[in-house]
Structures are given as structure tokens and as C-alpha cells.
Design goal:
The chain is an all-alpha fold and 448 residues long. 87% of the residues lie in helices and 0% in strands. The protein starts with a helix and ends with a helix.
Length: 448
């Protein structure tokens, strides 16, 4: 038994480490953005906090939709049907483009109503141009995500890692040049950070497309892509898998993004502290996500082969590894709690508020790891519709009301808003685990 689990630990590390490294690149970019913008000005940091969280909701929803491709590609890859993988990728990119158009329209409506959301008046002139530039980049986020889910599904997680790291490095350099006005370019402040993000997202899509169409490694998939047609069956199948995952991830992110609106009611200092703590907490989530994505890929491969005992062992192995990662990421955050705020701003009030948020962040790591692992396990077996309903209960009926109750009714302020997150995440994780266990036991009994 131990040998069987050891085999899965090794395979998950092999798949997951490149994804984690790529996600750490995103984390480093988030740190760099927050550091550079924070030292440029507290108002700029607060404005970035609000706009970034609004777009995080849209981007997580969009990438969640693209995750519907992973179990399809993983199952086809497990059965050796490589040409069909290319055809499904073409349909996925088409579906992602349509979704980008829809989300852009929704975000335009949000932009037109920024002044109605109760945010500090002095931040609106900073928010508006930054919002527009990020809006333009939304299509490129979705196209890159489609290519990434394809590569992950065929277990080639390294290409995404290198492109993400390269794009994020360019973004950081662009931030430095455009925010502060280096190399003879004008000082653009927060808008410069947005322009740099747009440029890096475009370049990452171009790089992935060039690699896909020019690399010998992807020749068989390229042939399937070029010869395959956009068709109703693939399109509907991807939508059936993509929308529930998009809704699940969107509602999870909404519990954080809509909490940002509540934090904005408290004031600019609280909003700045909120952005710093979100940046730090994303370190943990992105690492769990990397391992969770590996769980989804490996489970989809075994599910395509009909190997249900291996499916269950992969899920259990993934959770063991995520628990280990949770300890490794939480401990440094706790030990450095007095210093974290000062990394980003020189404001003592903001730094004190950041230190107060460390305890809620520590508490919710178990629930975050649990929900990340078993949501991905359900994605791997293509049982995605229930995750949407579970997310609704956990994040919109538990987490958000609890945030308002603790933060405003009980008067705990921003700490109260953050104390709600452990309730929502743990509720989601427990229900995902129950659903996965129920489904795999049922499928196993049907095969006997």
C-alpha cells in the first residue's frame, strides 16, 4: 500500500512542481506589483487593490471555464487519441473567445458604475484608466489559459511554466520602467503597471501559439487542430464541463472580491492592508492550486482508463502533499507577521492591520487545501456540476454573510471580514470530499 502511494507522490510532484513554479512566478509578479505601487503611493495601492480584485473575479471565472478542457484532454491522452486532442483545443479556444466577449461587456457595465460602489472619491481618477487597460487584456488571459490547460492535460506542464516565468519577468521589468518613468519613458504610476500587464499577457499568448505550431513535439496535436472543425458536440461538451467550474471558482473568488467592497467601506488604510494580505495569502493558494491541477490531470488520465482505485489513491495522495505544503507556507507567514506590512508600505497603520490579519489567514489554510484538492479531484472525473451548488452554499450563503456579521454587526472590522473565510473554505472542502467519495464508491460498485 505504501509503495502504491509513493508512486503517486512522485508522479504528482513531477507534474505539480512545474505548475507550482509557474504559479510562484505569478505570486512574485503580484508581490512586485504591490511593492512598486505601494512605494509609489498608498492611494495608488488602494486603487489597485479594488480594481485588481474586480478583475480577479472575472479572470478566475474565465480560467475556471477553460478548466473544462483539462479532463477532456486528460481522458483522450490517457486513451492515446492525440488527434482528437488538437480538435478539442480548437473548440476550446473558440469557446474562450466568446466568453471573453461576454465578460468584457459585463466589465464595461461595472466600469460605468464605479462611482456607485461606495469607494473613496479620491481613488476614482486612479481606478478608471487602470481598469480600461486591464479590460483590454482579458481576451489574452483566456487564450493563454486555453493553451495552458491543453498542455497540462497531456502532462507537459513545463512549457506553461517557462512561458509564465518569462512573461512575468517582462512584466516586472515593464512595471519598473513605466511606473517610475525610467529609460527615458514618462512616469505613468498605476497606469504604467496596467500597460506592462497588458503587454506581457499578449506576448505570452504569442509565445505559446508559436511553440504549438512550430514545435515537433506538438506536431500530432497541431494536425488535429488544423484538420479538426469547430463543432457543436465538442463546443457543448466543453460548456457542460466549463460553466460549473467557472461558477464554482467565480463564487469562491467572489467571497474575496466582494469582501473587498466591504473593506472599502472601512477606509483607504484597511483597503491597502487588505490588498497586501491578499497578495501574501495567494502564495498559499497558488501552491495548492499547482498540486491540485496535477491531481486533476492524473485523475483524468486514470479515469479515461477506467482505473477507479488509482483515481481514489491519487486524490488521497494529493491531499497528503497539500497538507505538507500548507505547513511549509504558513509557518514563514506567522514568523514574519511583524515585518510583512513594511515590505510593501512605510505606513505603520497599514502594517499593524496586516499583522492582525495573519491569524485568520493561518486558520483557513486547512480548508483552502481541502477544497482545492477535492474540487480538482471532481474535475478530474468530470463530475463538475455539483461543485457549483456547493460553492454557492459555502461562499455566498456562509462566507459573505459571516464576513458582514463579524466585520460590521459584531464590530470586528477588517479582522472580522477575514475571519469569515475559514468557515466558507472548510465548508466547501468537506462537501467536495463527500461528493468525491460518494461518486467514486458508486462508480466502483457499478463496475463490479
Amino acid at each position: 500500500m505504501n509503495r502504491l502511494y509513493t508512486q503517486h507522490y512522485k508522479a504528482l510532484f513531477t507534474l505539480g512542481i512545474p505548475i507550482i513554479i509557474g504559479q510562484i512566478g505569478i505570486i512574485i509578479l503580484g508581490f512586485a506589483d504591490t511593492l512598486m505601487i505601494g512605494h509609489y503611493g498608498t492611494n495608488e495601492l488602494a486603487a489597485a487593490s479594488f480594481v485588481n480584485n474586480m478583475f480577479t473575479l472575472a479572470i478566475i471565472f474565465a480560467t475556471g471555464f477553460s478548466y473544462g478542457l483539462t479532463p477532456v484532454v486528460g481522458s483522450l491522452f490517457g486513451r492515446g487519441e492525440s488527434r482528437m486532442v488538437g480538435r478539442v483545443l480548437k473548440n476550446s479556444l473558440f469557446a474562450n473567445t466568446l466568453l471573453a466577449v461576454l465578460l468584457t461587456a459585463i466589465m464595461v457595465v461595472l466600469y460605468a458604475n464605479l462611482h456607485r460602489l461606495g469607494q473613496p472619491e479620491e481613488l476614482l481618477p486612479l481606478m478608471r484608466p487602470y481598469f480600461i487597460v486591464l479590460l483590454i487584456s482579458l481576451l489574452f488571459v483566456l487564450l493563454f489559459s486555453g493553451f495552458k490547460q491543453f498542455a497540462d492535460g497531456i502532462t507537459d506542464t513545463r512549457i506553461s511554466m517557462w512561458i509564465l516565468l518569462g512573461g512575468n519577468l517582462l512584466n516586472i521589468i515593464g512595471n519598473y520602467i513605466l511606473i517610475y518613468g525610467k529609460c527615458g519613458l514618462p512616469e505613468m504610476g498605476l497606469l504604467g503597471a496596467g500597460v506592462s500587464t497588458l503587454a506581457s499577457r499578449i506576448l505570452m499568448v504569442v509565445a505559446f501559439a508559436l511553440f504549438f505550431f512550430c514545435s515537433k513535439r506538438y506536431r500530432v496535436y497541431k494536425e488535429g487542430f488544423l484538420q479538426g472543425m469547430i463543432n457543436r458536440a465538442d463546443f457543448l461538451h466543453l460548456n457542460r464541463l466549463g460553466w460549473p467550474v467557472a461558477m464554482q471558482m467565480g463564487m469562491e473568488t467572489a467571497s474575496f472580491s466582494l469582501s473587498t467592497v466591504m473593506v472599502g467601506w472601512i477606509g483607504t488604510t484597511a483597503l491597502a492592508a487588505h490588498q497586501i494580505m491578499l497578495t501574501v495569502s495567494q502564495v498559499c493558494f497558488m501552491i495548492y492550486y499547482g498540486m491540485g491541477a496535477a491531481v486533476a490531470v492524473r485523475i483524468s488520465n486514470f479515469h479515461g482508463q477506467g482505473n477507479l482505485p488509482a483515481v481514489r489513491r491519487v486524490a488521497q495522495s494529493g491531499f497528503h502533499l497539500i497538507l505538507l505544503l500548507a505547513v511549509c507556507t504558513s509557518l514563514p507567514i506567522f514568523l514574519l507577521r511583524h515585518d510583512i506590512g513594511y515590505w510593501f508600505v512605510d505606513d505603520a497603520a497599514v502594517s499593524l492591520m496586516v499583522m492582525q490579519l495573519v491569524i485568520p489567514v493561518m486558520i483557513y489554510q486547512f480548508g483552502d487545501g481541502l477544497q482545492c484538492n477535492y474540487a480538482n479531484a471532481l474535475r478530474g472525473i468530470s463530475d463538475v456540476k455539483p461543485v457549483m451548488y456547493i460553492a454557492f452554499v459555502a461562499y455566498l450563503l456562509v462566507s459573505l454573510p459571516a464576513g458582514y456579521l463579524f466585520g460590521f454587526v459584531m464590530g470586528w472590522g477588517i479582522v472580522g471580514v477575514w475571519m469569515a473565510f475559514p468557515f466558507g473554505l472548510t465548508t466547501a472542502g468537506a462537501l467536495y470530499y463527500w461528493r468525491f467519495r460518494t461518486q467514486t464508491v458508486q462508480k466502483h460498485s457499478e463496475t463490479l
